[in-house]
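User: Hello! I'm new to structural biology and keep hearing that structure can be predicted from sequence alone. Could you demonstrate with Molybdopterin adenylyltransferase? Please show me the input and the output so I can see what each looks like.

Assistant: Of course. The first part below is the input, the amino acid sequence of Molybdopterin adenylyltransferase. The second part is the output, the predicted structure written as tokens.
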Amino acid sequence: KVVKYEIIPDEKDQIVNILKTWVDKDGLDLIITTGGTGVYPRDVTPEATKEVIEKEIPGIPEYIRYISYPITPMAALTRGLAGVRKNTLIINLPGSPKAIKEIFPKLIPIIKHAVEKIKGDPSECARD
């Protein structure tokens, strides 16, 4: 369920502040950003996210690009990140609504599993 939604400008400090507030004050399980992940000079969402996260999860953006390559080679230009701050998963998605429609359904099981693991759920973890 969506509990927060805000449109903010491509300003690194504002992105950092809202991400920190939503994690540190509001304790959200998941934050998904859209846009600001390309190579345009004002695209700073990955830089803001990198400043906020404590653990990077490179596999999520790698998977996003993998899904996107058959649709467009321009997927190579996306710089989105994913990572964890405290108990919150943060994922940068592209700004294109078409791209999100293509990507998001395939990410849902990964997101659900990641959020469970971040919260400490030990099930389905490899054990010796």
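User: So the tokens describe the shape?

Assistant: Right, they're a compact way of writing down the 3D structure. Reading them back into a model, for example: The longest helix spans residues 97-118.
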